[in-house]
Amino acid sequence: MALRVGDKAPEFTLYDAEKKERLLREFLGKKTVLAFYPGAFTGVCTKEMCTFRDSMTSFGGMGAHVVGISVDPPFSNKAFAAANDLSFPLLSDFNRDVIKKYDVIQPDLGGVKGYIAARRAIFVLDTSGIIRYEWISEQTGVEPPYDEIAKALEGMS
Q: Is 50 a residue of the active site?
């Protein structure tokens, strides 16, 4: 069942790039941008995560932070974060449980039959974990509407 604006974001526990378990609830208390991305070290994903990196000052001024989620292993996420100077957490959904909970499954990524990745998707959560904005791309090569994400963050008190 697809998540909608107004729904409570499903709880999760995922490993970060340091192989530490992270729970959704530890990110709440601030506005949170969950940014699902198909794969580290790919062109559009790199551009997207670097755009979020460059927006951190303005997001921080709005009381928000970003959490990236992909099916990449923690080791790849660590190298990806280091190569692109990403200071926000990148979480590994290697068993693909969270992409199922959030209904953002990208089958056959890059034409590879059977390879399931995360669809490019954004969920903006308020401080209590309620989804206040969602965007899910049908095409992996499309970047999210950054201006809409900023407006959603600004619109929350």
A: no
